[in-house]
Amino acid sequence: MDQNTMEWYKRYCTEIAIHQAETGDVTLSEDQVNQLGEIAWTNVWEGGGGVFTARHLLEEQVFDLENNLRIRHPVAHSGSIPFAVSLYPNPASDAVTVFSSVALPEHLQVTVTDMRGKVLITQRLQSNILDVQSLPSGVYTFSFEYPGGVTRIREVIIR
Fold first, then answer.
1. What is the pLDDT of residues 70-97, one digit of tens each?
2. pTM for this structure?
3. 43 and 84, same domain (yes or no)
Protein backbone atom coordinates (compact mmCIF):
# COMPACT_ATOMS: atom_id res chain seq x y z
CA MET A 1 0.00 0.00 0.00
CA ASP A 2 1.39 3.40 -0.88
CA GLN A 3 1.90 6.31 1.52
CA ASN A 4 -0.80 8.44 -0.17
CA THR A 5 -3.47 5.80 0.45
CA MET A 6 -2.42 5.46 4.09
CA GLU A 7 -2.61 9.24 4.54
CA TRP A 8 -6.04 9.34 2.87
CA TYR A 9 -7.31 6.61 5.24
CA LYS A 10 -6.06 8.58 8.21
CA ARG A 11 -7.47 11.92 7.01
CA TYR A 12 -10.88 10.44 6.07
CA CYS A 13 -11.31 8.69 9.41
CA THR A 14 -10.02 11.64 11.43
CA GLU A 15 -12.46 14.04 9.76
CA ILE A 16 -15.38 11.78 10.71
CA ALA A 17 -14.12 11.40 14.28
CA ILE A 18 -13.66 15.16 14.69
CA HIS A 19 -17.15 15.82 13.29
CA GLN A 20 -18.63 13.33 15.76
CA ALA A 21 -16.74 14.84 18.70
CA GLU A 22 -17.71 18.41 17.78
CA THR A 23 -21.38 17.75 17.06
CA GLY A 24 -22.13 14.79 19.31
CA ASP A 25 -23.76 13.13 16.29
CA VAL A 26 -22.24 9.66 15.93
CA THR A 27 -24.51 8.46 13.16
CA LEU A 28 -22.77 7.31 10.00
CA SER A 29 -24.19 7.37 6.49
CA GLU A 30 -24.35 4.13 4.54
CA ASP A 31 -21.49 5.37 2.33
CA GLN A 32 -19.37 6.18 5.40
CA VAL A 33 -20.05 2.74 6.92
CA ASN A 34 -19.05 1.06 3.65
CA GLN A 35 -15.87 3.13 3.29
CA LEU A 36 -14.91 2.66 6.95
CA GLY A 37 -15.57 -1.06 6.59
CA GLU A 38 -13.20 -1.23 3.64
CA ILE A 39 -10.52 0.69 5.56
CA ALA A 40 -11.07 -1.38 8.71
CA TRP A 41 -10.45 -4.63 6.80
CA THR A 42 -7.07 -3.39 5.59
CA ASN A 43 -4.20 -5.16 7.29
CA VAL A 44 -3.21 -2.89 10.16
CA TRP A 45 0.48 -3.17 9.34
CA GLU A 46 -0.20 -1.83 5.84
CA GLY A 47 -3.03 0.61 6.55
CA GLY A 48 -1.56 2.48 9.51
CA GLY A 49 -3.43 4.61 12.03
CA GLY A 50 -6.44 5.11 9.77
CA VAL A 51 -7.29 1.43 10.20
CA PHE A 52 -7.47 1.78 13.99
CA THR A 53 -9.60 4.92 13.70
CA ALA A 54 -11.96 3.20 11.23
CA ARG A 55 -12.31 0.23 13.57
CA HIS A 56 -12.96 2.58 16.46
CA LEU A 57 -15.63 4.48 14.52
CA LEU A 58 -17.28 1.16 13.67
CA GLU A 59 -16.87 0.16 17.34
CA GLU A 60 -14.73 -2.82 16.51
CA GLN A 61 -11.64 -4.13 18.27
CA VAL A 62 -8.78 -6.15 16.86
CA PHE A 63 -8.17 -9.31 18.83
CA ASP A 64 -5.60 -10.91 16.55
CA LEU A 65 -3.38 -8.41 14.73
CA GLU A 66 -1.41 -11.09 12.92
CA ASN A 67 -4.50 -12.51 11.24
CA ASN A 68 -6.44 -9.20 11.11
CA LEU A 69 -9.40 -10.63 13.05
CA ARG A 70 -11.90 -8.25 14.60
CA ILE A 71 -14.83 -8.32 16.97
CA ARG A 72 -17.71 -5.84 16.99
CA HIS A 73 -18.89 -4.23 20.18
CA PRO A 74 -22.57 -3.29 20.24
CA VAL A 75 -23.26 0.42 20.13
CA ALA A 76 -23.95 1.52 23.67
CA HIS A 77 -26.68 4.03 24.38
CA SER A 78 -27.80 5.60 27.61
CA GLY A 79 -30.57 8.00 26.83
CA SER A 80 -29.22 10.00 23.94
CA ILE A 81 -25.53 9.54 24.84
CA PRO A 82 -23.78 7.08 22.55
CA PHE A 83 -20.41 6.35 24.11
CA ALA A 84 -17.69 4.07 22.80
CA VAL A 85 -14.09 3.88 23.98
CA SER A 86 -11.09 1.88 22.84
CA LEU A 87 -7.45 1.77 23.89
CA TYR A 88 -4.28 1.34 21.88
CA PRO A 89 -1.82 -0.31 22.09
CA ASN A 90 -2.80 -3.38 23.99
CA PRO A 91 -0.51 -4.73 25.40
CA ALA A 92 1.14 -1.46 26.46
CA SER A 93 4.22 -0.49 28.42
CA ASP A 94 4.57 3.30 28.64
CA ALA A 95 1.30 4.90 27.61
CA VAL A 96 -2.16 4.06 26.31
CA THR A 97 -3.99 6.20 23.75
CA VAL A 98 -7.70 6.62 24.46
CA PHE A 99 -10.05 6.77 21.48
CA SER A 100 -13.53 7.89 22.46
CA SER A 101 -16.75 8.86 20.75
CA VAL A 102 -17.17 11.72 23.23
CA ALA A 103 -15.08 14.83 23.56
CA LEU A 104 -11.80 14.33 25.39
CA PRO A 105 -10.45 14.87 27.90
CA GLU A 106 -12.63 16.95 30.15
CA HIS A 107 -15.69 14.71 29.96
CA LEU A 108 -14.13 11.38 30.95
CA GLN A 109 -12.95 10.06 34.26
CA VAL A 110 -10.80 6.95 34.23
CA THR A 111 -10.36 4.45 37.05
CA VAL A 112 -7.68 1.77 36.73
CA THR A 113 -7.92 -1.32 38.93
CA ASP A 114 -5.77 -4.40 39.21
CA MET A 115 -7.13 -7.95 39.00
CA ARG A 116 -7.80 -7.95 42.77
CA GLY A 117 -10.03 -4.90 42.41
CA LYS A 118 -7.58 -2.47 44.02
CA VAL A 119 -7.96 1.04 42.59
CA LEU A 120 -4.57 2.28 41.36
CA ILE A 121 -5.53 5.38 39.36
CA THR A 122 -8.58 7.63 39.46
CA GLN A 123 -8.42 10.83 37.47
CA ARG A 124 -10.16 12.98 34.94
CA LEU A 125 -8.37 12.65 31.62
CA GLN A 126 -6.13 15.57 30.76
CA SER A 127 -5.43 14.31 27.22
CA ASN A 128 -6.09 11.20 25.17
CA ILE A 129 -2.74 9.76 26.34
CA LEU A 130 -2.73 7.95 29.68
CA ASP A 131 0.67 7.31 31.28
CA VAL A 132 0.91 3.70 32.55
CA GLN A 133 4.65 3.53 33.28
CA SER A 134 4.03 3.31 37.02
CA LEU A 135 1.97 0.12 36.67
CA PRO A 136 3.78 -3.19 37.09
CA SER A 137 3.27 -5.91 34.48
CA GLY A 138 -0.19 -7.43 34.62
CA VAL A 139 -3.80 -7.16 33.45
CA TYR A 140 -5.75 -4.06 34.43
CA THR A 141 -9.33 -2.88 34.13
CA PHE A 142 -9.80 0.62 32.77
CA SER A 143 -13.25 2.07 33.57
CA PHE A 144 -14.26 5.23 31.73
CA GLU A 145 -17.16 7.21 33.12
CA TYR A 146 -19.01 9.86 31.18
CA PRO A 147 -21.14 12.38 33.15
CA GLY A 148 -24.50 10.88 33.95
CA GLY A 149 -23.04 7.53 35.00
CA VAL A 150 -22.46 6.02 31.55
CA THR A 151 -19.48 3.69 31.94
CA ARG A 152 -17.35 1.63 29.55
CA ILE A 153 -14.83 -0.96 30.74
CA ARG A 154 -11.78 -2.21 28.87
CA GLU A 155 -8.97 -4.55 29.92
CA VAL A 156 -5.35 -3.74 29.11
CA ILE A 157 -2.22 -5.82 29.50
CA ILE A 158 0.77 -3.87 30.81
CA ARG A 159 4.20 -5.28 30.02
1. 444 444 333 444 567 788 888 999 999 8
2. 0.52
3. no
